[in-house]
């Protein structure tokens, strides 16, 4: 069984070097054979914030790999050093929590097939073309890439909301590849211009819970801040849907700026923001990130368009997704939306 496991999953996805060279503004993926790409400053930061000891790094990776092979021998997962390091860093090198995160990561695919089936950039090109999300070309002074979301660009009649989730997940997968992101984390900038009742009520509490569960407990990324701007009155209702599912630490990282750009600039400096948000980094251009994702089509096919990774695996009783909420719960939340609107 171990031989079968290794033949399926030990190697990282193939990467086209020529495609990576065209997007030099964003770090390329790690090499097939791991070597640390962190600067001395980030090595020190990882030691302080993540309890990562360079001299023990590969020993820790091997310990997690051994746990997977022993406790989940049927789990079809990558076992290369670079991949497993994402989970260790996201859980501060706690082996048990890193393993649970890895199981949650794969459980998401089984629990949410409409998101993960045939997941590749070409299937969400309409979302990227619409401008629903992008990654700004410059990280902030703390080295954190800025994921810019514009939910008001989406209209429920255009396409299903899960297509937005698919584009978001592909973006997170690309963002987490560089070791810098694994250590520094990311910042979210969400512009709610144009969001009305139709967008706010469409996902519903159960879908909102799934999205939050993926970001908090099912993906190896550190979300350091969520900056909300231009939020309408209805946002109180939107946040009422999301907040019950947020951990306290995550809820504290939400900052509501309204239309006050000076408030935003205290969180994200003008030098890395586009001119649409009072910045000096030129106009907002959705093209570079869209092209980067689309050029990585083959990479995502290898990663996601494969057999069910959980087939035959035995998961612990604790699961990432709870039962679907009843109609009374949804009606109560919807009434809050109408009240705020």
UniProtKB/TrEMBL annotation:
GO MF terms, alphabetically ordered: phosphatidylinositol bisphosphate binding
CDD domains per record: SEC14 (cd00170)
CRAL-TRIO domain sequence ranges: 120-285
Pfam families tied to this protein: CRAL_TRIO, CRAL_TRIO_N
GO cellular component: membrane
PROSITE patterns from the UniProt entry: CRAL_TRIO (PS50191)
Domain of life: Eukaryota
Protein name: CRAL-TRIO domain-containing protein
Protein's organism: Gouania willdenowi (Blunt-snouted clingfish)
